[in-house]
Amino acid sequence: MNRLRTSRNHTSTPPARKKQDDTHKPHAGAGIGRWLAASTTWFGPFTVITAAMSVLALAIGGPEITDTAGQVLGAADWTQPLTWAALLLKISASGLSFLPVGVAGYLAYGMAGRPALVPGVLGGMAAMGVQGGVLAGLAAGLIAGAATMALQRIAVPPALRDVTTTVLVPLLATVVTAAVLIVFAGPQLGALTTWLHQELAWLEFHNTVLVGVILGLMVCSDLGGAIGKTAIAFGTVGVSGSDPSKFNPTDMTMLAAVVAAGMVPALGLALATLVRGRVFNDAERAYGKVAWLFGATAIPEGAVPFAVADPLRVIPAGMAGGTVAGALVMIFGTTITVPYGGVFAIGQVGKPLLFALAVTAGVLVTAAATVALKSVRPTTATTASPARAGTRRKTPAAA
Measured at the alpha carbon of residue 244, what is the angle toward residues 264 and 53, in degrees to the nearest 5? Predict the structure, then answer.
C-alpha cells in the first residue's frame, strides 16, 4: 500500500507543473488584454500627478503661461508665483512626454517578462523621439515583447543561455524595435502630418466644417502625439502676437475647434464611468473621479490611462466626440485666442455658451460611444482586475 501511495503521489506531480506552464502560455499571447486592463493602476497616479501640475500652473499663471514659461524661468525670480507656475508647467510637460516610454516598457514586460523590459523602454524612447504619442508607445511595447518572445525560442547551447537571456536577446530586440520606429514609423508619421497640414490648408478655403471634423479627429487620435501636435500647430498659425484684434476670425475659430476637441476625451470618459461604471474596473472608476479636471483644462493626455487599458474602444470613442465638437465650433463660429487652458481661458473665448455647447455635445458622444463599445462584447481588457492581472504575471516566475 505504501508503494502504491508513493507511486500515485509521484505521478501526480507532472500534471501540476504542466498546469502552471499552460497558465503562462496564454498570458504571453491572449493575456495582453488582461495586462493592459491592469495598467490604470500604474498610469493613473502618474498621469494624475503630472497633469495636476499643468492644472496648477494654469490656475496660478493663466493660459498665457504656456507661451511665457521659458522667459519666466530664464528670469528665475522665485519670490514670484509666476515662476513656480512656469516650473510646474515644464515638469508636467516632461512627465507627460514620458508616457510613451512607460507604456512601451509596461506592455513589453507583460508580454515577455524581464528580458523585454529594456527593449520596451528604449523602444518607447524611440517612439518619443518620433513624437508618436501613446499609440507609438503601444506599438513599441508590442514589437519589443514579440521580438523578445521570438528570440527566446531560438535554441542555444546551455553554456550561452545566461548571456543570451541577459544580453543578446534584449540587445537584438531593442535594435528591431527601434529600427521599426525610427526607420519606418518615423518617416511615415512625418509624411502623414505633412499631408494633413497641406490638406487642411486647402480645406480652410473650401469647407470649414470639414476642417473642424479633421482637427477634432487629429487632436483625439494619439492624445498628445505628433498628429495632435500638428493640429495644434495648424490652429495657432494665424493666432500669434500681442493684439488679438488683428487675428483672423477663421484662424481663431479653428483654434477653438482644437481646444474644444482636446477637452472631450477625458471629460467623456469620466462621464462614462459615472453612467455605466460596471464596464470599467475599480482603478478606472477611481481615476474617472479626477479625469474630468484634466478634460476641463484641455489636457488630452488625461485620457491616457483609459486609452492604454482599452485602446480599441476608448480611442475611437474619443475621436467620435472630437469630430462633433470640432464641427460644431466651426458651425457656431466661436473663437479663442490662446491654444491651451480650457476653462481657464474662458475669458479669451468668443461666444462662450456656444463653445460650451460644442464641448458638451462632444463629451456626450464620447461617453455614449464608450459605453456602447464596452457593453457590446465585454472582454478581459475591461473586466479583469489589476490584482488578478498582477498575480497571474507572478505565477510563472514563482514556478
Answer: 45
